[in-house]
Amino acid sequence: MAGATLGDLAGAVGAELPRDLRRAKGLVGQLLEAYLGASAGSRALPDFPELAIELKSLPLDRSGKPLESTFVCSIPIADMAAVEWTSSRVRRKLSRVLWVPVEAEPALALAQRRFGQALLWSPSPEEEQALAEDWLELAGYIGRGQVEALTGHRGRFLQVRPKAAHGRARRLAFDADGAPIAAMPRGFYLRPSFTRAIIERHYALPR
Question: How far is CA 97 from the centre of its chain?
Answer without folding.
Answer: 10
